[in-house]
Structures are given as C-alpha cells and as structure tokens.
# Entry
Amino acid sequence: MNPVARAWNQLEEVLVCILLAGMTLVTFIYVLLNNLYSVFYSLADTIPFAEDALFSIGDGILYLAQEMTWSIALSKAMFGWLIFIGLAWGVRLGAHIGVDLLVRNFTLGAQKAVALIAVGICLAYCALMAYSSEEWVAALLRAGIGAEDLDRFGVMQWHIVMIVPIGFGLMFLRFLQVFVRILRNQQLGLGGHGEAEDALKLATENKAEGTKP
# Structure
C-alpha cells in the first residue's frame, strides 16, 4: 500500500473515532449536568450548615446545563459527519450489506460483468449526489445562514452540510478502487457484507451444536 493510501485510510479511521468520541462526550456531559444539579439541591435540604454553598453549586451546574442547549445541535452535526465519512469507510471495509447469492450462481465471467455494472451504477449515483449536494452547499454559502444553536460560535449551515458532497466524493473514490480491483481480477463482486452467508453459517453452527452429544 502506497503512503498516500495509507494516510487516507488512517485519516478516515481517526475522523470516525474523533466524531464518535466527541458526540458521546458532549451528550454525556449534557446529560450529567442536567441530572447533577438536583443532587446538590437535595443535599442542601438535608445539610443545613452547608445550604448556601450547595445551592450555589447547584445553581452553577444548572446554569451550565441551560447554556449547553447547543450540545444537541452539535451532536446532530457530528452524527451527520460520522455517517458520510462512514459511508466511504464502509465501502473500503466491505461493511455495506451485499445481496449477491443469485449472482454467485453465474459463471465467473458473468459475475465480473454484473459486478462492473453494479459498481458503475454506484459510481454514477455518487457523482450525481456529489454534484447536486455541492450546489446545495453553494446556495447555503451565498445565503450566509447560521446553524441553529451553533451560530453563536460562528458555525454556518454550509459548514455542516459540506460533508455531504465530501462524503459522496470519498465514496466515489472508494467505489473506483473497487472497480479497478474487479478489472484486475483482484476482487469478485462489490465486497459487501453478505447476510445470506451469515445466515448459512449460523444455520450450520446451530446444526453442528444440535448434533453434539
């Protein structure tokens, strides 16, 4: 694997980890703050000599919780980025569901032709969506509309939705890699995750367990 491809793969994985961790952390802190201030209010009612201090801490936590209304919008934005980066990552890993049980009954030549047609359709779809979404991002850029609950930080709507053309562009490149591998006979099919194979494997394992003494 050349250094560019290796760096690309690592960047995808790092971005997925950062987005997933960030989304989880922001949601956790928001939920924690929304449930923690009541604890200090309850302690203030049961500990009279520390009532003022505990009420002050509870008020401070409540203020932070009320100020974190942006956390929901940020979590949604990070989730959207996670989805579109994950699309390309899934193509690389073969994580997308592939239904090719019927195709595998064809001859190898026919399987290759069907796979090339399927990948060609995927490439056309990604190119169309990348082009269309790019026009959408350009329109939002011209409009200069702020993102809901995030505009206080200078985040605009186009900052969030620009991941759509980027994601489809990355997925186009991943499908192009699949197309080349099929042409070179390095891969047969789209490389998707086969539910049929899993079902057959599970049935075989259950049958084997059932025959054990």
